[in-house]
Amino acid sequence: MSTTTSHQSFAVHPSDHCVPDDERAALLAAPRFGTVSTDHMARITWTAADGWHDRRVEPYGPLSLDPACAVLHYAQEVFEGLKAYAHADGSVWTFRPGANAARFARSATRLALPELAEADFVESLRALVAVDKAWVPTGEEMSLYLRPFMFASEAFLGVRPAQQVDYLVIASPVGAYFTGGVRPVSIWVERGYHRAGPGGTGAAKCGGNYAASLLPQTFGYDHDCDQVCFLDARTKTVLEELGGMNVMVVGADGTVRTPPVSDAILQGVTRSSILALLTDAGHEVREEPVVLAELLAQIASGEVAEVFACGTAAVMTPIGRLVGDDFDVTVADGGAGPLTMSVRAELTDIQYGRRLDRHGWLHRLA
Ligand SMILES: *Cc1c(COP(=O)(O)O)cnc(C)c1O
């Protein structure tokens, strides 16, 4: 990806209708994921002629789009998700933004969108959080969810990469993912539909992948499951990932396995961070195919002790049950195993500044 050493600054156009302090305090007391936005959004425009320009922070509000806007027809769009964490001393930090910036650039390339330099990506987060710092919640396990995204904003019905693109960052305060303690989820293992395939867009974080996962997700609900795990499209025998989280399997001997990243699996920042922490702690970590039939047998025999999903939103979610069209197995103790819970605590302790950041993962935003 292209890199610039010095960032260009964002012009700030302050909102004249900010949410009053008391109303904001009430919203921050019990935020529900993705329902409330801060007062501002960061934005950069790209055109084929002028490249990236007009870096600004402006009042949050509806976009005005031409009905022929390319994203509405051909889904040329990519996004990211990361969080800003308030530390006890009042400073605000984010976690490994360079990894998200690099993934955003890879996703953009796959969708024939222009690359945004890491310096612009990180500076857009800093500029928005600087203006909306009062929106970073301070309660336990609370954070400000940051959603950078880029889409084809050119009004043109022809099929080709758009020549006008908009990049925005919006932010939403979020509470503890699990209220009342971590709850293991049930997973529907989908055999008929896939979220990605060889040579497809599975490794890109694009809205289209999510659209493809919604129907199978409803099959999961029909089977009383919370989420869906997808299998590989070619052999339908190995686990890939959930609609928005990577998956890991913990052996009774402490070995941890996860499917290797491929063009059908999203390279999660949480995934890579967990693998690093486990390696630090002396666990054997194997990135290798997880065969469904073997996994079911190993859960039944007790060889597999814990299964969990991981991603920025929930950090780590224990998987208590796997259900498919001809099986229904419960993981030992119904999930929420000790390794899942201890690595989850270690990772969140680093993010909230309660534990030494050995890897230099934290980046100060405000
Ligand atoms: C975002 C995402 C993940 C998790 O990535 P993190 O960087 O850990 O948040 C996993 N799978 C898919 C399909 C995703 O879109």
Characterization of this structure:
The N terminus is likely disordered. The chain has 366 residues and is of the alpha+beta class. A hairpin with a 3-residue loop joins strand 15 and strand 16. The strands form two sheets. Strands 1, 2, 3, 4, 5, 6, 7, 8 and 18 form a nine-stranded mixed β-sheet that branches. It starts with 10 loop residues before the first strand and ends with a strand. The longest helix is centred in the middle third of the chain and has 16 residues. Helix 6 packs across helix 8. The protein contains eight helices and 18 strands. Bound molecules: pyridoxal-5'-phosphate. Pyridoxal-5'-phosphate (PLP) binds next to helix 6.
Bound molecules: pyridoxal-5'-phosphate
Poorly predicted runs of 5 or more residues? 1-5
What is the number of beta strands?
18
Overall average residue pLDDT = 95
Anisotropy-based shape: globular
Helix share bin: 25-40%
Percent strand: 25-35%
Order of helices and strands: EHEEHEEEHHEEEHEEEEHEHEEEHE
SS element count, helices: 8
The Rg value, from CA coordinates, equals: 21 Å
Q: Report, as a whole number of angstroms, the end-to-end distance.
A: 26 Å
Biggest sheet: strands, sense, closure? Answer: 9 strands, mixed
Counting helices, strands and paired strands, the structural category is: alpha+beta
Structure in a nutshell:
The protein is α+β, with helices and mostly antiparallel strands.
Features:
alpha+beta, nine-stranded mixed beta sheet, 8 helices, 18 strands
Reconstruct the topology from this structure.
Layout: E1 11-12, H1 21-29, E2 40-47, E3 51-59, H2 70-74, E4 77-79, E5 82-86, E6 92-95, H3 97-110, H4 118-131, E7 143-152, E8 164-174, E9 185-190, H5 207-222, E10 227-231, E11 239-242, E12 246-251, E13 256-258, H6 269-280, E14 285-287, H7 292-301, E15 304-311, E16 315-324, E17 327-330, H8 338-351, E18 362-364
Parallel strand pairs: 1-3, 9-10, 9-16, 13-14
Antiparallel strand pairs: 2-3, 2-8, 4-7, 5-6, 5-7, 6-18, 7-8, 10-11, 12-13, 12-15, 15-16, 16-17
Helix pairs in contact: 6-8
